[in-house]
Amino acid sequence: TDKRVYNFSAGPSQLPVEVLKEAADQMLNYKGSGMSVMEMSHRSSTYQKIFDDTKATLKKVLNIPDNYKILLLQGGATQEFTNIALNLMANGKSDYIVTGSFSGKAAKEAAKFGDVHIAYNGKDNDFTEIPTQDQLDIREGVDYVHLCNNNTIYGTEWNYVPDTKGAPLVVDMSSDILSRPVDVSKYGVIYAGAQKNMGIAGLGVVIIREDLVKPHPANIPVLSELDTMLEKDSMYNTPPCWAIYMLGLVVKWIDEQGGLEVMKEKNEKKAKLLYDYLDQSDFYKPHAKKDARSNMNVTFTTPSKELDAEFVKESIAAGMTNLKGHRSVGGIRASIYNAMPYEGVEYLVNFMKEFEEKYK
Ligand code: PMP
């Protein structure tokens, strides 16, 4: 069928239809260049303009101050787990706040290269919470403190910026960047894989305070040298050209929608619809504690594993997809990023009501 489904994938995830249409329109012949963006030299003036416009629009939309630089790199967020540790641990010490799977992976990677202290570990409460400031055991004088702003798998999200005792804060925003305004100046580094709110896979976006880019240590892989990448404006080698072009279309779309205040408003409205329904139901059980809930990934269970599986099965038949929770936690997960329309969540909630009626 040619009908598009409501796609609740955690990533790669649904893109705005307007963005897909624009990419399709430009597919064979980008603005009279006679070729697709996929076929273009990254050194051409046509591509350079796409690249520069993408960065400029991202800077505008996210309100990035002038003393921050944008790097557009290959390798997704996981590559940045490595790059951050290799480049920023000048004194060999960093603290990691572990609130889920990806922050755990980031910490594990960094521990290969230095003295990594786990300032908090949410494992004991099944990653249902975000720690309060007084739960954080942050050391004095570390090179940086790392956290993951939105835990894609567990469905929890930070709603404050913790005090790090003066150390720069490095934040993985893979699954909530561009979903709401943030004060970039509070962070040392913001990084994200692009395949949720920023477009498609293959691109890692790094927003870094200029003074944190130091001469790289000897003997690290050249593609991990953030100073080299900055000096070459992310084009030491061929960048992920198509993914950067798609990011450009996505940030232009966000800008046209009215920017991040509008995204925030829409995302809060969608999440509220779903959480309000979950809260009044005795059938469904949300995973995250109330004050830690994510507006991007909503996680919950039905009364049994069998019903979870049935839910997923029937949701597919009803025209929805990717509602199965991550294999490590089970249950149901609805990822409702910027591109998910309100009607998609409404449709899901109606389905949930019917399912509850049928099986309660
Ligand atoms: N961090 C977060 C919060 C994520 O959700 C993901 C992937 N879903 C990653 C890191 C890993 O990203 P990538 O697959 O781009 O390496």
TrEMBL record:
<feature type="binding site">
    <location>
        <begin position="237"/>
        <end position="238"/>
    </location>
    <ligand>
        <name>pyridoxal 5'-phosphate</name>
    </ligand>
</feature>
<dbReference type="InterPro" id="IPR015422">
    <property type="entry name" value="PyrdxlP-dep_Trfase_small"/>
</dbReference>
<feature type="binding site">
    <location>
        <position position="43"/>
    </location>
    <ligand>
        <name>L-glutamate</name>
    </ligand>
</feature>
<dbReference type="GO" id="GO:0004648">
    <property type="term" value="F:O-phospho-L-serine:2-oxoglutarate aminotransferase activity"/>
</dbReference>
<dbReference type="InterPro" id="IPR000192">
    <property type="entry name" value="Aminotrans_V_dom"/>
</dbReference>
<feature type="modified residue" description="N6-(pyridoxal phosphate)lysine">
    <location>
        <position position="196"/>
    </location>
</feature>
<dbReference type="InterPro" id="IPR015424">
    <property type="entry name" value="PyrdxlP-dep_Trfase"/>
</dbReference>
<feature type="binding site">
    <location>
        <position position="195"/>
    </location>
    <ligand>
        <name>pyridoxal 5'-phosphate</name>
    </ligand>
</feature>
<comment type="subunit">
    <text>Homodimer.</text>
</comment>
<keyword id="KW-0963">Cytoplasm</keyword>
<dbReference type="InterPro" id="IPR020578">
    <property type="entry name" value="Aminotrans_V_PyrdxlP_BS"/>
</dbReference>
<feature type="binding site">
    <location>
        <begin position="77"/>
        <end position="78"/>
    </location>
    <ligand>
        <name>pyridoxal 5'-phosphate</name>
    </ligand>
</feature>
<keyword id="KW-0808">Transferase</keyword>
<feature type="domain" description="Aminotransferase class V">
    <location>
        <begin position="5"/>
        <end position="348"/>
    </location>
</feature>
<feature type="binding site">
    <location>
        <position position="172"/>
    </location>
    <ligand>
        <name>pyridoxal 5'-phosphate</name>
    </ligand>
</feature>
<feature type="binding site">
    <location>
        <position position="102"/>
    </location>
    <ligand>
        <name>pyridoxal 5'-phosphate</name>
    </ligand>
</feature>
<keyword id="KW-0032">Aminotransferase</keyword>
<comment type="similarity">
    <text>Belongs to the class-V pyridoxal-phosphate-dependent aminotransferase family. SerC subfamily.</text>
</comment>
<dbReference type="InterPro" id="IPR022278">
    <property type="entry name" value="Pser_aminoTfrase"/>
</dbReference>
<comment type="pathway">
    <text>Amino-acid biosynthesis; L-serine biosynthesis; L-serine from 3-phospho-D-glycerate: step 2/3.</text>
</comment>
<keyword id="KW-0718">Serine biosynthesis</keyword>
<dbReference type="Pfam" id="PF00266">
    <property type="entry name" value="Aminotran_5"/>
</dbReference>
<comment type="function">
    <text>Catalyzes the reversible conversion of 3-phosphohydroxypyruvate to phosphoserine and of 3-hydroxy-2-oxo-4-phosphonooxybutanoate to phosphohydroxythreonine.</text>
</comment>
<feature type="binding site">
    <location>
        <position position="152"/>
    </location>
    <ligand>
        <name>pyridoxal 5'-phosphate</name>
    </ligand>
</feature>
<dbReference type="InterPro" id="IPR015421">
    <property type="entry name" value="PyrdxlP-dep_Trfase_major"/>
</dbReference>
<keyword id="KW-0028">Amino-acid biosynthesis</keyword>
<protein>
    <recommendedName>
        <fullName>Phosphoserine aminotransferase</fullName>
        <ecNumber>2.6.1.52</ecNumber>
    </recommendedName>
</protein>
<keyword id="KW-0663">Pyridoxal phosphate</keyword>
